[in-house]
Structure formats: structure tokens, C-alpha cells
Design brief:
The chain is built from 13 helices and 12 strands. The strands form 2 sheets. A 7-stranded mixed β-sheet has the order 7-6-8-9-10-11-12, with helices on both faces. A 5-stranded parallel β-sheet has the order 2-1-3-4-5, with helices on both faces.
Length: 322
Amino acid sequence: MDRRAFIGTLAGGLLVAPLAAEAQPTEKVARIGFLQRQRNENVTAFTQGLQEAGYVESRNLALEIRIYGGKEDTLPRLAAELVFLKCDVIVAASPYAITAAWNATRTVPIVGVDLESDPVANGWARSLSQPGGNVMGEFLDLPELGGKQIQLLREVVPEVARVAVLWDATIGQVQVRATEAAARTARVQAQSLGMRLAADLPEAFARAVRAHAQGMIVLSSPILLGLREEISKLALTHHLPAISLFTSYPPAGALMAYGPNLAEMYKRLAIYVDRILKGERPSDLPIARPTRFDLVINLKTAKALGLTIPPSLLQRADQVIE
């Protein structure tokens, strides 16, 4: 081969190689919408779950996070925006977000996480095992947990006769009714402290103090999760042993918590997303409920309140904060 023929062959090879590389199929990018009240450790847990399933932003994942910041009236617009962006899946955290997403679309899969609602009673699903629509995910819907919280509180404060029940008056009616019924069974007087806004918190505690409450049960809702620092501080200031469903409360200063691990629930949402993206029908994916409940106790708070935690309770605790 002469010199000119060799150079021509080499140049042709150099030109063909980039073209062949460009012709290779690129990895499909999944667009995931996320409606959440605030950025917190649960958002981090969900994104970690996506990473463990093989989804990486800027490579095969476009994550559209929309934070509504407690402004529920913005949710319809945010949900419509995610539909307009042609998200493959919408993850909706809270009953408000699920309602907004469901009103915006009956075709885009909605993976929800909700501690307050019954998805069947709300019309989002036909049954837990066969939802039949576009809503699936992790739902707690165990209002009787209020009774378990009363039981645990009485193990620490056996003489408790009056408890304040702090709850979200916009979504917590089923929970508070079940908790009040459990209190009557336990012969404990329950004072209902329904609130709608963060600004209602000081007055709620003032009412608890006027009623001589000897303990506080904090029911679940997105607003009460977001106020865990403020509620825990006020409970300690007013010498109220407080127990919540949210396990993030004792690290914030509350006495106890008994409930599901929210971070694990959010990580499991990524499994739903992955299954949908791999072709499974959303209508066939069963709705799950948490099966593990953690007991968390803050010994530092117990000492500040002058309380002694029974050894039997400490042995059952999944986490003890000292």
C-alpha cells in the first residue's frame, strides 16, 4: 500500500469511529415528579433509594422536585406542571399532594406516601391488593396507634389521668376519634387540640396547660412533622411528656415516639418507581403498609422531666437517646 492510500485509509477510519459512537443508543432518561411539603431527610432517603435502583441524575434520571411549603393551595398548579412536563411517575407525599396529583391525572402513575388516609375510602384505589387505578405506594392508615401511644405514656407516667391530643384539624379526624376512644377505654381524659396552622401552636399549648394536662400525644400530619422542633421544645418548657408517631421527634427533644421508620418508607417508594419504569402496570402494584414500628426514647428529656423510664421499656426500645 502506498503512502497516500495508507493516509486515506487512516483518515477514513478516524471519521467513521466518531460516527459509530454517536450512533450508539443513549440510556433513556426517566422523568420523576416529586410533590413534598419541605426538603428534609425523607427526600434524601427517596433519592438514595433511586440511586440504589440504578438511577443517577444527569445520566438516566431527571428529578422534578416541587416543594409546596405548607401552601396547599399551590398544589393543583404544581401537580398540573408535573403532568405538563410529561413525568413518567409522580411521587406525592401527604394526602394533600396525592389529592392534587390524582385530580390532575388519572393516567400518570402516582406513588404516594400517606400516614393519615385510607386510599380505598378516599376512592384512590379499589382495594389494597389490586388498586386498579394509577395510585399506589405506602399508606399507614392505623388510627388505633393513638391507643398504643397512651399505653406507652402510662408506662412512664402511671398516674396520668389527663392527656392533650395535638392533631391536624384539616386531615386528622379519624385519628383523633380513635385516640379519644382509646383514652376512654383507658379511663384517661383526652383534651382535643386541633390546629390548622403553625401559628396555632402557642395557643394549643396554652390550652393544654390550662387543662392541667399531664402528657401529650402528637398525632401525624405533614404540618406536625415539620413542627417537631417547636413542639418538642414547647412540651419540655411546659413539662409535658410527649409521645409522637414520628420517630424524628425524640431526636428533636420529645420524650418518646412509636411509629414506622419514615426514611425507610420513602426509600421503598423508589422500588415502586423502578418497577413502573421497567414496565409493570401501576394498577397491579399492591398498596403496602409498614409492618415494623420503632420505639424511640430520649433519656435526656426523661431526666429533664424528672421521669424514670422502666427497665422493661428500655429493653423494648429500638433506639435510646442519651
